[in-house]
Amino acid sequence: MDIRKLIPQHKDDQKVIESLKQLSFEEIKPIIPDLLEWLQDINWPIAGPVADILEPFSDSIVPDIIKILRTNDGLWKLWILTTLARTTNIYLQYFSR
């Protein structure tokens, strides 16, 4: 299966969610940056399910989260901090530098 086909195509693209839920971290890893983009606005219908899928892997995606925290997109940072970063030790890793 081409993992890229499981990247949501629009903010209401719920059809990929069940397939994404079945994947291990190693399987989902190549598309994590693409999935994180869907957390730019937590009000999008796809954002909550994507956050739920990524949350168990949050400690493994700290480098991706830090990249987002270094952007100028304040709302994206807020959504990342309130959905994924709150379940990691990222505060220690990022803010203790």
Features:
single chain; mainly alpha; DUF5071; 0% strand; 7 helices
Summarize the structure in words.
This protein has helices at residues 17-21, 25-28, 32-37, 47-54, 62-69, 74-83, 90-95. It is mainly alpha-helical and 97 residues long. The longest helix is centred in the C-terminal third of the chain and has 10 residues, at 74-83. It is globular, with a radius of gyration of 13 Å. The termini are far apart. The model has no long low-confidence stretch (mean pLDDT 90).
Annotated CATH homologous superfamily of one domain: Domain of unknown function DUF5071
Main pleated sheet: none
CATH topology of one domain: Serine Threonine Protein Phosphatase 5, Tetratricopeptide repeat
Cα-atom radius of gyration: 13 Å
Low-confidence stretches: none
The DSSP helix count reads 7
Overall spatial form:
globular
CATH architecture identity of one domain: Alpha Horseshoe
Q: What structural class do helix, strand and pairing data support?
A: mainly alpha
Helix content: 40-55%
Helix/strand order: HHHHHHH
CATH class of one domain: Mainly Alpha
Percent range for β-strand residues: under 5%
N- and C-termini, Cα separation: 40 Å
Estimate the mean pLDDT confidence.
90
Give the strand tally: 0
InterPro entries: Cthe_2751_sf, DUF5071
Protein name: DUF5071 domain-containing protein
Organism: Niastella koreensis
